[in-house]
Amino acid sequence: MSMNPHGGRVLEWLREGKEGIDLSANLNPLGPPEILRRRWPDLFAALSLYPPLDPRFVGRLLEAIYGFPQEAILPCNGATQGIYLLGRALSGKIVVIVEPCFTEYARAFRLGGKEIRRLLVFPEPPPNPLEALRGADIVVLGNPGNPLGDTEGLALYFQAREEGLSTVFVVDEAFQEFLGEETSLVFRVFSDRNLYIVRSLTKYFALAGLRGGFVVTHPENAAFLLDHLEPWSVNTVLVRALELFASEDLSPFREATQRWLLEEKAFLEREFSALPFLSFFPSRANFYTLWTEKEDPEFFSFLEQKGIFVRRLGDFFGLGGRFFRVAVRTRRENERFLEAVREYGGAR
Questions:
Q1: CDD domains from the entry (predicted)?
Q2: How confident is residue 2, by pLDDT bands cut at 50, 70 and 90?
Q3: Which 8-state DSSP code applies to residue 285?
C-alpha cells in the first residue's frame, strides 16, 4: 500500500479508530452552498446516468459560475487529473518547479518523461531567479502557492514575459477563489498561448468527494488537451451539483466565505504570534505553514492523540520535519488546535 503523504485522510483515520478535527485539508468549512444541501436527495437519480462526454456541457456551467469563457475551459476529475494530463500532454523536456510547490507536479511531469529542476524561493529567493528559467521548456508555480499561501510567483511570471521568455507556464490556482479573482491569471490565456491554469472545485465549494477541477487555457490548447483526456472525466453527480450552482445567486455564499476567512485569519494570526515554540508564515490563502523551533515528532503525536490532524510538510522540497500546515477552519476548531498547542507547550 502506498503511504501517500497527502492530507484529508479522514476515512482512513476513522478505519483506524481515530476521530477528531481535520486541519490537514484546506476546505471551506461553510460549504457546499446551501442549495446543494437542500437539493441533495434530487441528485440520487444521477447515479444511474453516464456523465456528458462533450466538455462544453460542463464548460457552460463553469462559465455561468465563474464568468470564464467556456471555450477556454477543460473540465477534469479534480485538479489532480488536470496536473497529470499536462504532465503527459505538454511537449518539452525540462521542467522548472518553483518550490515549495504542491508535490504532485513533480511526480506528474516525471511520469511524463520530463527532467525536473527546482527553483527554491524559500525562505529567501535567489538574487536572479529568472536565470533559472532560461533553458526551461515548462515552469510550474502556485498562485497562491501551496503550502505557503503567497502570490510571489506572479512577479516571476510577469518578469519572464517582460524579458521575452516564451516558456510555457503552468500555474496552480486551486485556492484562488479564497483571494478573489483579482490576482488570477485566467484572463491572460487568450493573449498568452503558453499559459495553463489549473483550478479546483473541491476546496472553495468543499466538494472533495465529488472530484471536480478544470484547466483554463487558450481554446486551441484546450482542444489539444481534450484529445489526451480520458472520457467521462467528470462524474454525473458533480455535473448536477454544478447545474444547481449555475442556477443560483452564489453571492451570499461568497460573501459569507469572505467574512469568515477575514475574521478567522485575523484571529489566528493574533494567536499564532503569542505561541511559545511555533512561528507562522504570512499567508493570503485559507491555510498557514507553521514551524517548530526544533524537530519534535512527539508534538505531532500529541496532536493526533488530541484528535487534531495537521499536514506535515517533510515531503515538500526545501522544507523538513519542523514544518507543517494547518487549514483555517471554524472558530471552535481553530481554538481546539490552539488549546492543544498551548497544553503541549506548557507540559514541555
A1: AAT_like
A2: very low
A3: S
